[in-house]
Amino acid sequence: MKKTHTRYLLEIPTHEYQEKKVYYVIKVTNLDTNDFKEVKKRYSELESIHYKILEWINIFKIKIPQLQFPKKKILFSTNLSEESVNKRRAELQKYFNDVFQHPELQSLGSIEDFIPVTKNRKPLDQNQISQNSNNQWSEIEALKKSYLAKHENQVFSLPLIKPQQQIKQQYTFKFGEHAIFDNSAIYTIEITDHYANKSWKFNQRYQDLKENHRQLKKIKISFELPEFPHKKVINSMDNSDLKDRKTQLEVYLNSIFKYHELVSSNLMVFFIAKSQLDGNEIGCRSKGPSQTTLEYSSIQSQTNIMDQNDDFDPKQPRKITC
């Protein structure tokens, strides 16, 4: 039987001005239940979601028609013209309706923010909640495993089972410099794997880390997650605020990685692996085959989900250039 997916209609009926900035009022309706949800987003926030969607499509090789996100004006700000704002509103509405046509994109946390909660629904017991969560993420987790398997020879550090006499946690994080790009702060983060004695750096946005926290909350655990640092509503790009936020995010990540139950989850294995593919290792890598591979991690390399046309040999060690 063909699997059915929930149908949604997205409308942007109006917009509001706050401190000379345009906020689009977005209404998403579940066409099966008539439940709806309204959110307000700026163009820059919606553009960030677009880039996250593109990254999602690229990582998991999702085959869908190209999505056309409304472009910025080069010479004049759209916000200066009511006609231009109305035109952009219509373009954004079309774009996000195109996004919602693809069920593969609805599991992305940034898109889940728009989805209405079904009312008058019989409460589920804990087993049903766990079952539904597993069903929802099973396809995504399979894609993650496939992604990791294909990049196995490029990953030199993955979460391991903690050695009996090992006291230190495997991973620690240190935030370095940050840069402002398109009204967003991009942080440089240094990760150290104390078991493998390796360090590397990668860049991450606040929203990326927040998205990761959202997904962590889906994992059934026996303890309370550390609180994720909140962003100030006003002057969020203020230097003192950014400094405080870096400190808070550093404490948060180091707290998360104290829990092996979280570190060994598929989500965090993927986080660690992708940070290496996106970043740069500090120093030279060992010339021998790494023992920190998928074979020894919580995710096993699964050749049955790899592309048979992929000429990748998982037994071939990563080449070293220093």
From TrEMBL:
Highest taxon of source: Eukaryota
InterPro entries documented for this protein: PX_dom
Domain called PX: residue spans: 1-122, 165-279
Molecular function GO labels: phosphatidylinositol binding
Transmembrane segments: none
Protein's recorded name: PX domain-containing protein
Protein source organism: Paramecium pentaurelia
